Amino acid sequence: MFRPDAQRALLRQGVTTVIGGQDGVSYAPGDGAWASRYFAAINGPHPTFTGGSVADLLATYDGTTPLGAGYLVPAGTVRHAVMGMDASPPTVCQLADMTRLVETGLADGALGLSTGLDYVPGIFAEARELAALCTPVTAASGLYVTHMRGGYETAAAAGLAEVAEIVRMSGVRAHISHYHVDAADGIRLIDDLAARGVDVSFDMYPYTRGCTLVAMALLPPEYSARSVAEAVALLGDPAERARLRADWFPLIADKPSLGPGWPDMVVIAHAPRAPHAAGLSLRAEAARRGVDVVDAALDLLTENALEVSAVMAVRDERLTSNLARLFSHSAYTGGSDGIYIGDAPHPRGWGTFARLLGTYTREVGAFGWAQAVRRLAGLPAERYGLHDPDTVAYRATYAQPTALAIGIDDVVVAGVPVLAGGELTGATPGSAARRTGSARP
C-alpha cells in the first residue's frame, strides 16, 4: 500500500482498492507487534502504525496512498489480544471480550471479520467461537471472510462444512478466500452450500501455485504457538532436529498441499538473511549448502528467525480450462491475495487482474467484458459493502436544466485523469470508438 512498487503493480492492473486484514492476522486491534512478527514474511511492518484501534489503523491510509483501503477485523489478532496463545476454548468472559473487540472494529469502519484457520491462533478456534464473533458482523451487514481450515484441494469439503455451520449459527454472509480446488468439486461444493441457503461467494487467482509461510507448511502446528525466540532455540537443538527428521518430515509427504516431491515444490520467495536463496527450491538450496533438504529447511528458518515465505507448487497443475470453469461461476469475485514482500515473490500480486482480463476474458471467454466488470468490480463492492449509491444524485430540473450532477468528482479515461475534484484537468486522452475491423484513418 505504501511502497511505490506495490502501488504501481496494483494500479497498472486497474486495482484501486485493497482489502487488508485477511487470513485472521493483521495489525489492529492491539499493539501490532505480535502480528508483525508472525506475519513478517507476508505483511511486513507497518511504516507508521504502532498500535491502537481499527480506526487508528484506517486513519494511516487517509491521504497517504493513491489506493483505497478497506479492512477486516482479524479474528486471530482478536483472539491473541484476549487469550494469547492459549489453545483452550474461551471462557464466557473471554468470548465476551473478543466479541466486544469485533463490535468496536466494525463501529470503527471494518467491513467484516476474517479468519485464517490454518494459522495460529485461528487454528485453535472452534466453529461455535467463530459463530459468536460473527454475530455482530451479521448485525452490521458485514462479511465473514475465511481462509478455511485444513487447506483446500481435497480438504475443501471439510472446510466448507465448517463454514456452513458457522453461517447456520450466526446468519452471517460468507466469502471463501483463495479457493484452491478442482473445478468440478469446487462448483459442486459451492452449489450445495447455496442450495442449503448459505449466502456464499469466493475469490481465487488465476495461478495454480500458492504462497505461504514456510514455517506453517513444514513445521508441526505447535511451533506456531511458540514465540519466535523459543522456536528458533528449539530448532537449534540436535535432539529436536532428530525428532522432526524421524517423526514429522515423513508425514509431509502425505499432506494434500504437498506430497513426496515437497523439496522441489517449495521455492523460496523471501528470506532476508539468505537473499541468495530467493527463487531456489529447497532441494537446490540444500545442494548449494551441501546438506540434505531437512537441514536446509531448518537452517533457513533458524537463520531468518522464521521470516521465510515460499511459492508452493502443487502435485497437479490444473489446466486453464479447469480454472476458467470456476471463474465462470456466478459466486466468483476477483481477488489476488497479493504479497509484495520478497526477492522472488508470487506473480499473483502483479498479474492476477490483467491475466483475468487478458487470458480468461479475451482469449478463453470464461465471461464477457460486461461480466468481467461485474466479477472484478461490482460484485466485490457489493459483498464487502463498498458501494455507496446515495452519494450520486442529479440536480438538473426544468427550472435549472444545467445544474451539474453531484457524487462523481474524479474520472479517468485511458488511464489519464480528465476530471479531478469535479473540475476538468485539461487532458485529452479520448479517441473514437470504432467497430472492430473498420478502416481506421
Q: Keywords, please?
A:
441 residues; alpha/beta; TIM Barrel; 3 domains; three-stranded antiparallel sheet; globular
Task: Give the structure's gist in a few sentences.
By secondary structure, the protein is α/β, with parallel strands linked by helices. It contains 18 helices and 13 strands.
Describe this structure in words.
With 441 residues, this protein is of the alpha/beta class. It has 3 domains: 4-208 and 318-384, TIM Barrel, CATH 3.20.20.140; 212-312, no CATH class; 395-441, no CATH class. It is 41% helix and 13% strand. The strands form 3 sheets. A 7-stranded parallel beta sheet has the order 1-2-3-4-5-6-10. A 3-stranded antiparallel beta sheet has the order 7-9-8. Strands 11-12-13 form a 3-stranded antiparallel beta sheet, with no helix packed on it. The longest helix is centred in the N-terminal third of the chain and has 16 residues, at 92-107. The model has no long low-confidence stretch (mean pLDDT 91).
